[in-house]
Design goal:
Among the domains are: 53 residues; 203 residues, P-loop containing nucleotide triphosphate hydrolases (Rossmann fold), CATH 3.40.50; 103 residues. The chain is built from 19 helices and 20 strands. The strands form five sheets. It has a six-stranded mixed beta sheet with strand order 5-6-7-3-8-9, sandwiched between helices. Strands 14-17-18-12-19-20 form a six-stranded mixed beta sheet, sandwiched between helices. Strands 2-1-4 form a three-stranded antiparallel beta sheet, covered by helices on one side. Strand 6, helix 7 and strand 7 form a beta-alpha-beta unit. Helix 5 packs antiparallel against helix 6. The longest helix is centred in the middle third of the chain and has 35 residues.
């Protein structure tokens, strides 16, 4: 049974009450006794491991599914918007039909107004503007256009049936936001959005008047949007009045307190068990309270966390000196250029993130370097020892009747761990939190997050030394992501990651390939947050110059901007030597910073050493900024 306490403010207006909810599938109880409430203006995230029923709970709240027992109560007359993880849209509709919720008159007036502008029809424009005024449709038209534009939806008359899964998700999100509901229910809203869209959505939800309940694995998103976290854990619900960072701190405190309570109960229990053994059979009534207390202690002592934490420790294949050498690679689709004379030599231990707008060729690039699709020209020379582990965006492919165990047994019966120990596949599945009673479950019956975790198992079982991860964070829970990040940080092969999860990118990668469209790819020496910070700085400088009307001779070309002309095209001999030295200096400073951070977090330093090393980290960060900026200036002419 579940325990949940809410500290209610009597002035709060309740929008949603969930009481004693239970859902099961056959003998499997997904959750039971779920009780919580959402008040007006709250922005709440639901956090739980995969398989605990987050999506099922959302579907029940939204009326898409039914509970076994329990009650759901909404405030009367509130408007509810629900974004499903996999939206169901009317495939016969056009995009504009799907996202318009206003009256047909308003819709017709807006479409007529846009047609008049596109065709430069002055008579139609005057007529349509009069209609817009009469129907008070201007605000609605602005909201529709703003949201569709920010989500990069511009072909309003395109049929839903012709859209990809990601495009459908964006249309569904636009449809929900345009309606401006009182209560927004969002299930993984950042899936299939690029980084620009996520940052826009983050600001939109932070400022919206709608009350929010959502599930997301994007930790920066959680931190910046939500003011409350609800955690489902081991059939209990816990509530944290703060953002994701606050949740992590308080969750750790809770787990430590629970563990201390269990340890204390175990220590007392040992004494009480000795007393129970020595007690005569005809126990006095006076001792009954102690006997009852013994059984209560026994329950508490057995109440520790039962589940194992997932750990990733898989042996990778030996990697030789040669990794992948790419020379003058070109790829076009009809008139659109994906790569233009791209040259790069991968080295062992590199961790590269790939960012760019949707459609700029990120996934195509991955298929080119793995030779899944041919290049138009140029070469991809793959070292003989390279073993790819390719985690694809579309996820695991399985036959309808396949069970969890069948998929892994097709690859191997035995897996070698990082320490050289061998493990049978059944034990290995258990290692990845697939307990023995799940091994013979059909894959079609497990959750989306569990399918992604199983897919990760199948990729790692092949002992790759070159990992390619295309949107690996979709549908993985936050706990699994943290474990995956830890594993990748110690992986000694190569890693190439395409992800819209900014936190994941910051944890894993050490430099970026920025896809800017039309075959233009730039190498940025830093993680995603550093890239955004640098880009924002450049854009501010350009705006300042534009506003002053004074054009400076640019020292460098900003990432994400069009090519500049009239600049020098190659480095001098001294500049080449400076460029090479900067690369070594940046690497040395990064290593020194990492070692200092490790020493500071060890807890072994006295106050003086702690202050000294903290000050040095500040100096290193300043030096890194200066050297990285100079490296970027020179890199444009290499």
């Amino acid at each position: 049974m579940l325990c949940f306490v809410i500290d209610k403010n009597l002035n709060m207006i309740s929008y949603l009450q969930v009481e004693n909810l239970k859902k099961s599938f056959g003998d499997l109880v997904l959750f039971e006794g779920i009780t919580f409430g959402i008040d007006k203006d709250q922005k709440v995230a639901l956090v739980a491991k995969n398989g605990t029923g987050k999506t099922s709970l959302f579907n029940i709240i939204a009326g898409k599914d039914s509970q076994d027992t329990g009650k759901i109560t909404f405030r009367r007359n509130i408007k509810i918007g629900f974004l499903e993880q996999t939206p169901s849209l009317n495939t016969n509709n056009s995009i504009i039909d799907e996202v318009f919720h206003a009256s047909e008159d308003i819709k017709d007036a807006i479409l007529e107004y846009n047609q008049a502008i596109e065709t430069d029809n002055r008579n139609l424009l005057a007529k349509s503007m009069e209609k817009m005024d009469h129907l008070q449709a201007w605000d609605y038209e602005v909201r529709v256009k703003q949201i569709l534009t920010k989500l990069k939806i511009d072909r309003y008359n395109q049929q839903i049936s012709t859209l990809s899964g990601g495009e459908k998700k964006r249309v569904a999100l636009a449809s929900v936001l345009i309606e401006e509901p009182d209560l927004l229910l969002l299930d993984e809203p950042t899936n299939h959005l690029d980084l620009d869209m996520i940052e826009w959505l983050e600001k939109y939800l932070k400022n919206t008047r709608s009350t929010l309940l959502m599930v997301t694995h994007d930790r920066y998103f959680l931190d910046r949007v939500c003011n409350e976290i609800i955690e489902m854990d081991n059939s209990f619900i816990y509530q944290y009045k703060g953002n994701y960072t606050y949740f992590l701190k308080k969750r750790e405190e809770r787990l430590n307190a629970e563990e201390a309570q269990v340890e204390k109960a175990k220590n007392i229990l040992r004494k009480e068990e000795d007393w129970m053994r020595r007690m005569p059979k005809a126990r006095s009534t006076k001792a009954k309270y102690r006997i009852d207390n013994y059984y209560q202690l026994k329950d508490v002592a057995a109440g520790g966390r039962q589940e194992e934490e997932m750990r990733i420790s898989v042996q990778s294949s030996r990697m030789g000196k040669k990794v992948i050498e790419i020379k003058n690679l070109n790829k076009k689709f009809e008139d659109y250029t994906i790569l233009k004379d791209f040259t790069y030599n991968f080295t062992r231990g590199e961790k590269i993130g790939i960012v760019g707008d949707n459609g700029t060729g990120k996934s195509t690039f991955l298929n080119l370097i793995t030779e899944n699709i041919p290049a138009d020209s140029g070469t991809v020379d793959i070292g003989q020892t390279i073993v790819f582990g390719y985690y694809k965006q579309e996820g695991i492919k399985y036959k309808e009747d396949q069970r969890v165990i069948d998929v892994v047994q097709e690859i191997a019966e035995v897996v070698t761990l990082g320490n050289g120990r061998q493990m049978g596949v059944k034990e290995f599945l258990n290692f990845f939190l697939f307990p023995f009673d799940m091994h013979y479950t059909p894959i079609s019956k497990i959750s989306g997050g569990e399918k992604r975790r199983l897919y990760l198992v199948t990729v790692l079982m092949r002992k790759p030394n070159f990992l390619i991860l295309d949107e690996p964070t979709n549908d993985l829970d936050i706990m699994t992501l943290a474990v995956l990040e830890e594993y990748l940080s110690t992986f000694d092969g190569c890693i190439v990651v395409v992800s819209h999860d900014r936190f994941f990118m910051d944890q894993v990668v050490d430099h970026l390939f920025v896809f800017r469209g039309n075959g233009d790819v730039k190498d940025f020496p830093g993680d995603y947050s550093q890239y955004r910070e640098w880009l924002t700085k450049v854009e501010k400088e350009e705006k300042k110059e534009s506003a002053s009307g004074i054009k400076k001779e640019p020292a460098r070309q900003s990432v994400g901007k069009a090519s500049l002309t009239g600049l020098k095209v190659k480095l001098s001999f001294n500049e080449k030597r400076e460029f090479e030295k900067l690369e070594n200096d940046i690497a040395d400073l990064e290593n020194e910073k990492a070692n200092l951070e490790k020493e500071i977090s060890s807890g072994t330093l006295n106050n003086d050493d702690l202050i000294q090393k903290s000050n040095r980290i500040g100096e290193i960060i300043k030096l890194l900024d200066e050297k990285s900026d100079r490296w970027l200036e020179l890199s444009e002419f290499v």
